[in-house]
Amino acid sequence: MTESVRVDKWLWAVRIFKTRSMATEACKKGHVSIGDSTLKPSRMVHIGETVQVRKSPITKSLKILALAEKRMSAKLILNFVEDVTPAEEIELLEMQKNMRWIARDRGAGRPTKKDRRELDDFFEA
Q1: Least crowded by CB within 10 Å, which of 26, 31, 55, 70?
Q2: Strand, coil or helix: what is 92?
Q3: Is residue 74 domain-shared with residue 110, that is, in the same domain?
């Protein structure tokens, strides 16, 4: 086992990003940090560090339990990463999911009578 691994490679291996190039791009854009400092894709991470990944609309906090260079199945990820995201961030994500139901797609036109009744029922309950 290695003592350190590149942050972009680790984020890809534990399935935070779908491709390694997406993980690299997130690092370059400043969406990945440890503490207050943003990380370059080549930054080496170690066991015990907490990495913050900003994925709209929340910032996930992930504690590194073990290092990995190769992508693994989703079942094995629990051995490599611990999600320590604050409860406020998770509540924000849940609220965003609920708001998506209320919002209409642009260009969808006016709500039908049925849509209007469903909205009224939702807000009265």
Answers
A1: 70
A2: helix
A3: no
With a pLDDT cut of 70, the percent of the chain lying above it is 93
Burial of 20 (0-12, 13-18, 19+ CB in 10 A): middle
Tokens 């086992």 belong to residue: 1
Burial code (b: 16+ CB inside 10 Å, e: under 16) for 21-43 equals eebbebbeeebbbeeeebbebeb
Q: Where in the sequence is the domain holding 1, given as residue range(s)?
A: 1-85
Percent of the chain having pLDDT more than 90? 60
**Are 74 and 115 found together in one domain?**
no
| pTM for the model | 0.74
Q: Report how many domains make up the chain.
A: 2
Q: Shortest CA distance to 10 belongs to which of 37, 47, 38? A: 47
CATH code (residue 70): 3.10.290.10
